[in-house]
Amino acid sequence: MTLLGSTETRQRVDADILEIRGGRPLTGQVDVRGAKNLATKAMVASLLGETPSILRDVPDIRDVEVVRSLLEVHGVTVSAGEEPGSLVLDPARAKSANFEEIDAHAGSSRIPILFCGPLLHLLGQAFIPDLGGCRIGDRPIDFHLDALRKFGAIVDKQPSGIRLSAPDGLHGARIELPYPSVGATEQVLLTAVKARGVTELRNAAIEPEIMDLIGVLQKMGAIISYEPNRVIFIEGVEELRGYDHRSLFDRNEAVSWACAALVTDGEIFVKGARQYELLTFLNVFRKVGGDFDITDDGITFRRGKSPLKPVMVETDVHPGFMTDWQQPLIVALTQAEGTSVVHETVYENRLGFTHALNQMGADIVVHPNGIADPNRRVPRRALEQAAVINGPTPLHGADIVVPDLRGGYAYVIAALAAEGTSRVSGVKIIARGYEKFLDKLSALGADFDVVG
Ligand code: EPU
User: Fold this and answer.
1) Does residue 203 have its Cβ closer than 6 Å to ligand 1?
2) Which residues are designated catalytic?
3) What digits encode the pLDDT tens for the residues 68-97?
4) What atom of ligand 1 comes closest to residue 63's alpha carbon?
5) What integer pLDDT is reported at residue 4 of this predicted model?
6) I want to staple 119 with a disulfide (CB 3.0 to 4.6 A). Which of 40, 75, 84, 126 is the partner?
């Protein structure tokens, strides 16, 4: 049993190898809770408050466990709230942590980098272990460190991690990000709210998860305004209090289940999904041949009456098509009648997962430097790649190894749509971002066994 009270059995949480028998439509309801990419950041924000914070709809996933544990080694008391799925985070006894305790978290997640600003405000110093997260590219942290230096932090990169200090406190800064990075925007927000003076952030990320974090910080007493064209102003304040906040739903999980319905020709009601934050995805889903009904409680996704159609998609920062959505979509595009092109423009190595789909019978060619096309909307990026998917190709079972979180999810739904049996190894990674994943699959009628 975890802090949040998951009903998924320990054996299932630790499950790493699945034998999946494909060919059955996934049908039923899944409940989607708070977004991994908001809840973990809101937990870090609790360090900035003078009083306890309450976060609601926290997903029971490994990334939340990592952040909880890192907060605890820094003296924050984290306990289950009265409402199921809520956490109370009390920073009253926050303190410096020792090296060993922090280092135990090395390589487990990327969130620790966001502890920099709050710890510098609280303690005047911070130590950040080596970062983890999915291996989908270099994932540098230069934007984060450059921004922290502009706030007045002294950054000392050491072999085991990064040591930061701010003997004279932090002051507001004018920062322009080279790219609207989600993490670097969060870094600036979490640091600027208590820095002396005003911070102007240009070329900021404006994902709904960022807006929700701004909402959290405003509840805490921060003064943050934003203008068109990705400009955010933050007026530093001396003191912040705790918040009470219900996390935005997990858009990535909602999209994943939508694609699962499309791929397996099933019908899934995603409770908690909302239209507004999914507008871009819903347009693509419809163009591919998906059908959906929207209610106040959620969205039902299914395949339409006609065969699936090919599309051209370019991943981009919000309000574009998110990089975390292309993997399950590509599985569906293997069944579309014609040639689809998916450009990955956010990360330099996020199409590697397609090799295993080819092993299962797909016809996907990856162009490492993308493809020039006059119809492109997103400006070409040096690191982009493109996948050309020729369909429809029947998929058959195979032995495949999960490469990362979203790629791993894509493999599972490919195996569920394939003829025959697949052995999918490394599914533990999926627990980093999908709550009660195996329970949800079972509830939707998936035919699989945990074999390792
Ligand atoms: N970048 C730099 N330098 C930096 C920071 C980023 O060059 O200092 C580059 C990255 O290499 C990448 C681009 O900027 O090419 C965008 O990266 P960003 O900082 O926006 O990504 P992130 O904050 O590390 C978050 C999510 C990812 C999601 C991206 C894009 C979290 C914990 N992770 O990553 O989610 O794909 O934003 O929306 O919020 C996932 O959930 O599976 C996942 C990988």
Assistant:
1) no
2) 134
3) 999 999 999 999 999 999 999 999 998 877
4) 32
5) 55
6) 126
